[in-house]
Design goal:
Elements: E1 3-4, E2 15-16, E3 36-38, H1 52-55, H2 62-65, E4 74-76, E5 82-84, H3 102-113, H4 137-153, E6 160-161, H5 163-179, H6 195-201, E7 204-208, H7 217-224, H8 234-239, E8 246-251, E9 255-259, E10 273-276, E11 280-283, E12 291-296, E13 301-302, E14 307-312, E15 315-317, E16 320-321, E17 332-336, E18 345-356, E19 362-372
Parallel strand pairs: 6-8, 11-19
Antiparallel strand pairs: 1-2, 3-7, 4-5, 7-9, 8-9, 10-12, 12-17, 13-18, 14-15, 14-18, 16-17, 18-19
Helix pairs in contact: 3-4, 5-6
Length: 376
């Protein structure tokens, strides 16, 4: 069943259809304009024991996949043991987009994001020949630019694409297209199966779109994270992983694999909180259909008992807080805005009752989102 969006709500999409693949978040885009994507990895893949498989550009064994994450999330304890890396909150990335300036956000949106939304992938491969092929330089550039727009808007450092990760993601995208479905752990019986592609699929956000997928729209799909299987916004959280340094993207004409689990560094900027929509001026064309979120820079944060209040002028809006889902990047709380809320104007968000492991204190944070319609 497809859920049509009002034409004025989203300038970049027309229709959304949620699909659940096993225990992983999923969505899919159909010929009628529906959307489908599959989130990268369940909670089992984000343990502190991760790193070896994800940090190498090689094919991992099934046992390695169960613990694949990032090497920099481990540190060596005295005596040679390994203890979990506890990230330290820092300031926003020095070259973040200035969200206090509507003009700065508008200009960055138009040059970094909107310009690449409809760029075709330029795929050179073939399903019939099981040839993974590649995408055009323009397509990869548009996807990376869109990816780094949302990261810099959120106060995070940009990432780069790695040619090896791109190639592996390309193999995963080919498998999704050839079999017309999404699967993080595809069976060897799949058409165009390769072990390289299967490994990449286990570390990637996955998307299908018909009649075609486009370069910048891929990122918009992952950031929206709509559908009943995506209440934890796992795709969004992986894209906004503050520690990521390199990712890989592969696309066919109808599928994308964005490898989000890979090289990282604990030295990257790690703001105390990262919200979506972000604080300050925010283009309403990227407003995620009311599914807002707040992530903590500290892995010790616990939002289970947190309360969320959203104020619009003199109104206090009724919002629905989703159950906390761990295992996708940083600790995150997600809530649903009212279906009729105005997508222009200011919204004051207040989150109270945030707990931290090892502390008896309660923490709170507040910020203001200013939604606006981008102009040429």
């Amino acid at each position: 069943m497809f859920l049509p969006l009002p034409a004025t709500r989203k300038l970049l999409r027309a229709t959304v259809a949620p699909v659940l693949l096993g225990t992983l978040p999923a969505l899919a885009l159909t010929a009628s304009g529906g959307l489908s994507l599959s989130g990268a990895l369940s909670g089992a893949l984000s343990g502190a024991a991760a790193g070896a498989a994800a940090s190498r550009h090689t094919t991992a064994t099934p046992s390695e996949l169960a613990t694949a994450f990032v090497r920099s999330q481990e540190v060596v304890a005295p005596g040679g043991g390994v203890r979990a890396f506890v990230p330290v909150a820092t300031r926003r990335y020095a070259h973040s987009i200035d969200t206090s300036s509507q003009a700065a956000v508008n200009d960055a949106y138009r040059s970094m994001f909107e310009s690449g939304v409809d760029v075709p992938t330029g795929w050179t491969g073939s399903i019939g020949a099981c040839d993974r092929g590649t995408t055009s330089d323009q397509s990869r550039g548009a996807t990376l630019s869109s990816l780094n727009f949302v990261r810099r808007l959120a106060g995070l450092a940009p990432v780069r694409f790695n040619s090896t990760l791109n190639s592996h993601a390309q193999a995963a995208a080919l498998m999704m297209s050839a079999n017309n479905q999404l699967n993080h752990f595809p069976p060897s019986s799949w058409r165009c199966y390769t072990r390289t592609g299967a490994t990449a699929a286990s570390r990637s956000n996955l998307a299908l779109a018909y009649p075609d997928i486009t370069s910048g729209r891929i990122v918009d799909m992952y950031m929206d994270d709509s559908g009943s299987g995506n209440y934890g916004v796992g795709h969004r959280r992986w894209v906004l992983n503050p520690f990521a340094t390199y990712m890989g993207s592969g696309s066919t004409g109808t599928a994308n694999a964005l490898q989000v689990v890979g090289p990282s560094s604990k030295q990257r900027p790690n703001p105390a909180y990262v919200s979506w929509p972000t604080s300050g001026w925010f283009p309403n064309t990227l407003e995620p259909q009311g599914r807002w979120s707040l992530s903590a820079g500290s892995s010790r944060a616990n939002f289970r008992y947190a309360t969320i209040r959203v104020h619009h002028g003199t109104q206090s809006l009724r919002v629905h807080k989703y159950a906390i889902e761990n295992g996708y990047g940083q600790p995150t709380v997600v809530w649903q805005m009212p279906s009729t809320f105005d997508e222009t104007g200011s919204y004051r968000v207040v989150v109270r009752g945030i707990r931290h492991r090892g502390s008896g204190k309660r923490f709170s944070t507040s910020y203001t989102v200013r939604l606006f319609t981008p102009v040429p």
